[in-house]
Write a structure and sequence with these properties.
Low-confidence stretches: none
Mean pLDDT: 89
Number of strands: 9
Organism: Streptomyces buecherae
CATH architecture of the largest domain: 2-Layer Sandwich
Distance between the termini: 54 Å
CATH class of the largest domain: Alpha Beta
Shape: elongated
Strand content: 15-25%
Largest sheet: 6 strands, antiparallel
Number of domains: 2
Radius of gyration: 22 Å
Strand order of the largest sheet: 6-5-4-9-8-7
Structural class: alpha+beta
InterPro entries: ArsR-like_HTH, GAF-like_dom_sf, HTH_MetabolicPath_Reg, Tscrpt_reg_IclR_C, Tscrpt_reg_IclR_N, WH-like_DNA-bd_sf, WH_DNA-bd_sf
Protein name: Glycerol operon regulatory protein
Helix content: 40-55%
Number of helices: 9
Keywords: Activator, DNA-binding, Glycerol metabolism, Transcription, Transcription regulation
Function: May be an activator protein for the gylABX operon.
Order of helices and strands: HEHHEEHHEEEHHHEEEH
């Protein structure tokens, strides 16, 4: 039976196209046509299909193509996973612990270390703040990443297409103020990147606010996040901005040891 009944040649051409793109900044339809030895119309349909699934994208002029967000996101994820494997969770916690303690002392609030695990953020460690009214560490807990400051700080490092594909069923609402849908999450993550830190305003627990910053290893890969959590009465937008430099200092100090 002809293998092409199963689309084998089409799959092969798609894979050859992606490998070809991987070695170049951009390509034209005619480049792909000549590389594969197929008609220009066939190359155009192939690129259009790959673009529809996020594997390639068109550059602004619309005449050239480059690798898309799905593949770039997978590559980023692989690098991040390999980085975490090299470090190890126990080693990460060991390295981060004294910096979390210093962050707690400087902010006088609970500090935490979180790491992405698929669609969730896992609380790896935490140091409780000194106030009688304080937020308890949630070490060992797992929450949807978009409901936590640390999770959003890490999601903001990923291509949007990767984030979108992480939540194919949409977003679960933990509180009335949890980010409501993917469009709102995209805007929120853009705001995180713009100001340099992520916020959690009553999004996982009512009356609890948080601020988070990503931790990058020596290769620049975001492998975790540090956060400060406090009752909403003590952590508004103004204080969050004041605390951001402390978080950046802690994150950079941890990253320098990874």
């Amino acid at each position: 039976m002809d293998d092409d009944v199963y689309g084998a040649s089409s799959v092969a051409n798609a894979l050859r196209t992606l490998v070809y793109l991987g070695g170049r900044d951009t390509v034209r339809v005619t480049d792909v046509s000549e590389h594969l030895g197929v008609a220009r119309s066939t190359a155009h349909r192939l690129l259009s299909t790959l673009r529809g699934h996020g594997f390639v994208e068109q550059v602004p002029d619309g005449r050239q193509y480059r690798l898309g967000p799905v593949l770039l996101g997978l590559a980023h994820g692989r690098v991040a996973v390999e980085s975490r494997r090299r470090i190890g969770t126990r080693e990460l916690v060991r390295i981060a612990r004294p910096h979390l303690e210093r962050l707690r002392d400087a902010a006088a609030e609970t500090s935490n270390l979180l790491q992405l695990d698929g669609p969730d953020a896992v609380f790896l460690d935490g140091v409780e703040g000194p106030h009688p009214l304080r937020v308890a560490p949630r070490t060992g807990d797992r929450l949807p990443a978009y409901t936590t400051a640390g999770g959003k700080a890490q999601l903001a490092e990923l291509p949007w297409e990767t984030v979108r594909m992480t939540y194919p069923q949409g977003l679960e609402q933990l509180t009335p103020t949890t980010v409501r849908d993917l469009a709102a999450l995209e805007q929120d993550l853009a705001a995180c990147r713009g100001r340099g830190y992520a916020l959690n305003i009553d999004e996982s627990v009512t009356d609890v606010h948080g601020i988070g910053v990503g931790v990058r290893d020596r290769d620049g890969v975001c492998v975790a996040a540090v956060t400060i959590s406090a009752p909403s009465t003590r952590l508004g937008a103004t204080r969050a901005a004041d605390l951001a430099p402390l978080l950046h200092t802690a994150a950079e100090a941890i990253g320098a040891e990874l």
